Amino acid sequence: MPLQHPRMTVFSEALKAAFLDELRESANVTVAARAVGFTVGTIYKHKREDALFAERWEEALTEAVDMLEHEAHRRAFKGVDEPVYYKGDEVGYVRKYSDSLTMFLLKAHRPDKYRERSEVKNELSGGVQLNDTARAARLTALLQLAERRKQQIETPADDTSDLT
Questions:
Q1: CB 19 within 8 A of CB 33
Q2: What burial class does residue 101 get, using C-beta atoms within 10 Å of its C-beta: 0-12 exposed, 13-18 middle, 19+ buried?
Q3: Which residues contact 163 (CB under 8 A, 6 or more apart)?
Q4: Where are the chain's structural domains?
Q5: Angle subtended at Cα 123 by Cα 121 and Cα 124, rounded to the nearest 5 degrees
Q6: In the chain, which end has fewer C-beta atoms inside a 10 angstrom radius, N or C?
Q7: What is the pTM of this model?
Q8: How many CA atoms lie within 13 A of 142 on its CB side?
């Protein structure tokens, strides 16, 4: 369907419903907008101006993501049959499972156990932890010390360069 100028076609309730159905199927705003012949900008304009449409939009996306999660689960645990070829001829199938999808699902559902861990410990010797205020004060003190040392290097206390 060709894209319509926003003033040429009214974004009717029927078109909104068709857009939401496509969004539910594709989980992609651009695909859904093109399916009903509107630009993404026009669709977003209607979302901003129509609270009920915005609510239905979020519901459609939630359903779409639920379906994506279901498909990821199916591929991870039930697998996908992939054809096997011998000398150019299909001779059977092998079932493949997705370890990466399994890990994504574990991270989503048990983040405390399976999330990526990157911890930075801010401790002084002796195991004292710094809060943000103490950390900022310490950083300020270090910057001031560095500035004082820089000034000492640039302006020596007893300048004898004119005694040559």
A1: yes
A2: middle
A3: none
A4: 13-71, 80-112
A5: 155
A6: C
A7: 0.57
A8: 6
